[in-house]
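Progress against Task 2.4 (sequence-to-structure conversion) is shown through the following example record, which the project officer requested during the mid-term review.
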Amino acid sequence: MNNIEHISEKSNDKSNQNIDITNNNETQLYQDLLKKLQNDTVVVSGSDYFPNAIPLGSFCFAISFILYGFYECKVHKTEDNFLYIVIFLFGGIGQLTAGVFEFIKSRVYSATLYLTYSFYFLSFFYVKKYNVHNESLKVFFGSWACLTAPIIILSTRINLFYLIQNAAAVAFFVVKCIGVCKDAKALKGVIAGILELVAGFCSLYICYGQILNKQLRQQILPSIPFKKDNEIDEINIKKD
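Structure tokens generated for the chain above:
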């Protein structure tokens, strides 16, 4: 009987000793990890040096579409060179820069989006500068409608405002193509301008949403995401 009690006491001592050893091991592990973090060099990916370029790309997209949309809607009637210089710099060069930064950060959707519309605005600047014939404009707008239509499908994995923006942009190309084919001033004028304004203001919402939500760390402008873990929707910020 005494032997049994002696064995039970030993087992209890061993169990207590095991618990102490486990606790000591965890403490030592945390201390070693802390030392490693303090002493070791932190490896940073090259893409981390580049900022989020989505606000820049969205702002350039918005400015170009909104300004030309106002012209199409007859808000301002003068089609001067200043309008096309803004389209060339913001819509062309600005979005090209944003697209390159997004490509470096391996964000394929936003890189494709901004590079695509950058090339559109650069080609549109050429069209207006050299007064391309209407027959060529049919092919021009029709081609852009077909080429940019798949972006609508990709937008369904991001958020509501990207979807509206790209759907309005593609609808603009379609309406513009039909308007040129039928020589319908209303289609290639006011209606096309309204679609441009819708696309432009949605893009402006995305731009300011990402900036405000990131800086203030709260939901100032919600994005209504379709897929919560998408790679570019930084507009939804959780409070720390």
